[in-house]
Specification:
mainly beta, Methylamine Dehydrogenase, Chain H, five-stranded antiparallel β-sheet, five-stranded mixed β-sheet, 4 helices, 46% strand, globular, disordered N terminus
Amino acid sequence: MTEGSGKQKADRKVKKARYESPPKKDKSSKLKPVTPSGSKGKEKAKEVDGASSQSSQQSILPTSFKIVAGSYEKLLYGLEGTASSSESGYEFHLKPIFIFPAHVSHIKAVAASPGGKWLATGSADEIIKVWDLARRKEIGGLMHHEGSITYLEFPSRSHLLSASEDGTLSLFHARDWVVLRTFKGHKGRVNSVAVHPSGKIALSVGQDRTLRMWDLMRGKGSASIKLGKEGEIVRWSSGGAFFVVQYRSSLEIFSTDMVLRHTLSHASRIHSVRFCRWADSEAELMFVAAEDKKVSVYRFLEDPEKPPFIIAEMVGHSNRVKAVEMLEVAVPEPETKTKNARKSTTIVCTISSDGNIFVYDLAALHDDTTNPLQLRPVAEHDTKGTRLTCLTVSENRSKEETDDKDARIGKRKRVEDLEDSGEEVQGKGAEEDEEDEGE
């Protein structure tokens, strides 16, 4: 992406991302590329509606799921996961549904929206590509950042948050892909971002050795602290009661008032951290993927003063585990009817530099404080040595299901917006944007 210096300066003054639609394959194609609206990005990001939309999405669990993994070889892998009845209960299956080169450089980040409609991929080529995952179509490319894309997340169905080596975070509105906010404050690369479950604030860590908090509703930084070392990953717990910052092989656990509660030393270099609520006991679990070829499962106690401890290890990989993600899914009834048959479970997906994609079932987990359980994969796919780099897992909704869900949620949001005191907030947001442009 080499352009003249004069044009680069002009591009920096524009708040809206440059949008490039994919090349047309043939005239018979029904795909109509989305073009940006005339908005200059002055829309108010009133609330990244995580809490309300996520609760409705959890009411009906998906019966199948999609796994998407990016690679150093620029390839994007897509798998469809399903569960079928068996004599012992149920079993999982993985089926490849696509593989293709998605970028001109290695893929560094992938994210799927809640509900599984949108897929975003980020690369060292500085482009964020947007895909309709249900239709398996490329929508276009967002060329807003001036550095490699380091992080992508859909905090809700209607918003995409990105981070880059250019030191900025950007909040996009899905569908028209207008840039609602650009967050500036980091000096150097942004390594990781974590949006609070409420959808109102986000944390970020970067090369400048600072932890920054962002007000997503007002579009401004709200706090920052110096960490003294470069944070590589930041994550909120599933309930948002605390967060963790990772540095190489150590983890620091903070309360919401930025007080350090615990410091954990892991056995090897950490590559990924995720949280989920253990359905069988309502306990908070932390999954740590590392250089030691496994994922360690930490359990948190109700007493925040007591440190978490390892209750299980997910094994099977022959090289470093690069990423871990999870999703709650519905499972079929067993062939042999039982009284207390499980209706749902949480699957944990992992990728490794060995080229394998594994699926684990948390139903096998039990709370043993003395001997950590060794969990083995219940389904797997071999990419034949591809160096996998990033991972996302989403519901597998059909085109019709996705469109119907979008219509229902869109109607509900319009009603909520009418009930909300939007005029005052919108006006204040516009004034803030004018100040930003003046700077």
